[in-house]
Amino acid sequence: MPTNPVVVRRVTAMLGKAGLVGPTRGPADSPPDTFQLDVVLRAVDGRTKLGVPPKGVDGCPVGAKIPDTVRRAIAAAYEAATARLSAISVDDLLKD
User: Fold this and answer.
1) Domain edges within the chain
2) Is the pLDDT of residue 87 over 90?
3) For domain 5-95, which architecture applies?
4) To pair with 21 at 20 to 30 A between CA atoms, which of 7, 11, 12, 96?
């Protein structure tokens, strides 16, 4: 994986804190291939990059509502992405 070792250590530490990886002396209680991708994403404090709502325009009846409307749309898209990721396991990725 072409990335800085510091990034790998940081992500590994986050996964360890979430209990998804760690040292074992025998078979792990939950093999990593059974983890769903939404769990992995939350463990590394990740979010899908769906954008940022634009700034509103004070005093404009339409422009003032745009940020909240876009924020709700982004939240709905994030929920849909999380639901889809919850149906995919690490094992599913390894099979592809």
Assistant:
1) 5-95
2) yes
3) Orthogonal Bundle (1.10)
4) 96
